[in-house]
């Protein structure tokens, strides 16, 4: 019985031509657009330049080969995030291994997303990547058609809470609420684990980083006496007909009071008035309470994606030795 032929190792992105990197990164963008995600502006050109110059770590298979592919990542502090795009299962595994190994020298955790494979091939690839300290996080994309009767949703939040424009809230307060909303959850593993990282992400969203930010369909909730930020929803445009809920946050001490449901219904009402026909969102499979809310509000799952996460083992404290 002959063994499968060995897969050649991917090359560092610094060895690629600018044209090769532009083609590969553009293929990533096309996949992200198909699932309702996209980076705005000249992201493709900037990423290709950073990869070629070595400012961003990356590995690739030439797009002229039987199955081209690319893996690239970002390191912030002790956490790293990356993405792998390839239509070949074995090459996807090789790219992911190069990415994780290349980032894990400096990072305590690495989270990697994938595009290009079928669901079955992606599952096999993830199984091949399993190692101590790793787990697979599943996320669902959900879509809801907007209807004329969505305009009947209440405009006033539950008692004791007032609604204000999202930009009337300080970034410090908004980031603190977002961090508290997802602290110690799977979602927090994917964001960054600190108020500062949430502030960085939120700033990007408000600056149209993942689509034209829709202020008229975004809002915050304040509890009076004393004033306390207890909820918020951020919405952006995917296409001229579809919007996306980027972030829905509720104070963990104020849950089960209808705040999350109000935010979703209020935002859908606003989107109908703006002329959108549908809205989508992403939810982590382990967030069962959010899934129940979205299911009850008529959202349906349209696709699932998986994120491979590796985390370094905790460092055992060294015992003190007497002199």
How does this model look, in words?
It is a single chain. The protein is α+β, with helices and mostly antiparallel strands and 323 residues long. It folds into two domains: 119 residues, Aminopeptidase, CATH 3.40.630; 162 residues, Aminopeptidase (3-Layer(aba) Sandwich). 34% of the residues lie in helices and 28% in strands. The protein is built from nine helices and twelve strands. A hairpin with a 2-residue loop joins β3 and β4. α1 packs across α2 and α3 crosses α4. The longest helix has 17 residues. The N and C termini lie far apart (62 Å). 35% of the residues are buried.
Quick take:
With 323 residues, the chain is an alpha+beta fold.
Number of helices: 9
Strand content: 25-35%
Q: What general form does the structure show?
A: globular
CA gyration radius, whole angstroms:
22 Å
Largest sheet: spatial strand order: 1-2-3-4-5-12-6-11-10-9-8-7
Which helices and strands occur, and which strands form pairs?
Blueprint: E1 11-12, H1 18-34, H2 43-53, E2 58-61, E3 69-76, E4 79-86, H3 89-104, E5 109-115, H4 119-129, E6 134-145, E7 161-165, H5 171-182, H6 186-191, H7 195-206, E8 219-223, E9 228-237, E10 242-250, H8 259-274, E11 278-284, H9 288-296, E12 300-311
Parallel strand pairs: 4-5, 10-11
Antiparallel strand pairs: 1-2, 2-3, 3-4, 5-12, 6-11, 6-12, 7-8, 8-9, 9-10
Helix pairs in contact: 1-2, 3-4, 5-7
């Amino acid at each position: 019985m002959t063994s499968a032929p060995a897969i050649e190792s991917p090359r560092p992105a610094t060895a690629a031509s600018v044209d090769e990197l532009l083609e590969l990164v553009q293929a990533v963008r096309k996949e992200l657009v198909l699932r309702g995600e996209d980076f705005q502006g000249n992201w493709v050109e900037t990423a290709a330049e950073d990869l070629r110059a070595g400012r961003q770590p990356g590995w690739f298979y030439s797009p002229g080969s039987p199955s081209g592919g690319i893996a690239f990542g970002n390191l912030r502090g002790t956490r790293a995030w990356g993405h792998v795009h390839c239509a070949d299962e074995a090459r996807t595994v090789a790219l992911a291994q190069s990415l994780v190994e290349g980032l894990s020298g400096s990072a305590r955790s690495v989270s990697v997303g994938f595009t290009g494979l079928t669901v079955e091939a992606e599952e096999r690839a993830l199984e091949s990547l399993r190692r101590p300290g790793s787990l697979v996080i599943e996320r669902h994309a959900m879509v809801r058609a907007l209807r004329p009767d969505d305009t009947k949703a209440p405009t006033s939040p539950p008692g004791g809470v007032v609604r204000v424009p999202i930009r009337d809230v300080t970034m410090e307060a908004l980031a603190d609420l977002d961090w508290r909303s997802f602290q110690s959850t799977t979602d927090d593993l994917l964001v960054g684990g600190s108020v500062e990282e949430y502030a960085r992400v939120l700033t990007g969203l408000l600056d149209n980083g993942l689509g034209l930010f829709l202020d008229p369909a975004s809002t915050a909730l304040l509890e009076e006496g004393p004033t306390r930020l207890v909820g918020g929803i951020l919405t952006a445009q995917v296409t001229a007909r579809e919007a996306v809920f980027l972030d829905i946050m509720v104070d963990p001490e104020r849950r089960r009071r209808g705040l999350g449901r109000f935010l979703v219904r209020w935002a859908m009402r606003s989107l109908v008035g703006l002329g959108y026909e549908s809205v989508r969102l992403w939810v982590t499979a382990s967030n069962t309470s959010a899934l129940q809310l979205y299911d009850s509000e008529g959202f349906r799952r349209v696709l699932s994606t998986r994120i491979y996460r590796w985390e370094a083992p905790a460092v055992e404290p060294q015992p003190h030795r007497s002199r």
